[in-house]
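Is this the right way to post structure tokens for a design question? Let me know if I should format differently. Anyway, here goes:
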């Protein structure tokens, strides 16, 4: 999976004042992360003191997805370039690495 393949499959809107990050639009909030990713992708769950919801992260070579799983079962998905992904993970204090 690549940034471009996911970007072209769905409607993404740039997040204001957050370069390199896009929020998913045009789908119901019940669409989960597994519905976005292909079978080769692995997502990891994190908790952050800077987010009220569970944070799910899936990386690919040229970016990744940060999704927030709300307590009511709905989701907010963001698609990120490499720089956008790294910046947001630092803000959330999520020590994600592939190793």
């Amino acid at each position: 999976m690549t940034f471009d393949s996911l970007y072209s499959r769905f409607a993404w809107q740039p997040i204001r004042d957050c370069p390199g990050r896009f929020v998913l639009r045009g789908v119901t909030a019940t669409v989960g992360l597994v519905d976005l990713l292909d079978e080769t992708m692995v997502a990891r769950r994190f908790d952050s003191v800077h987010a009220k919801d569970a944070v799910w992260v899936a990386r690919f070579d040229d970016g990744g997805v940060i999704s927030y799983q709300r307590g009511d079962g709905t989701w907010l998905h963001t698609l990120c370039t490499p720089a956008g992904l790294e910046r947001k993970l630092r803000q959330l204090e999520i020590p994600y690495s592939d190793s």
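Format looks fine. Someone answered above. Worth noting: The longest helix spans residues 82-92. The two ends are 19 Å apart (CA to CA).
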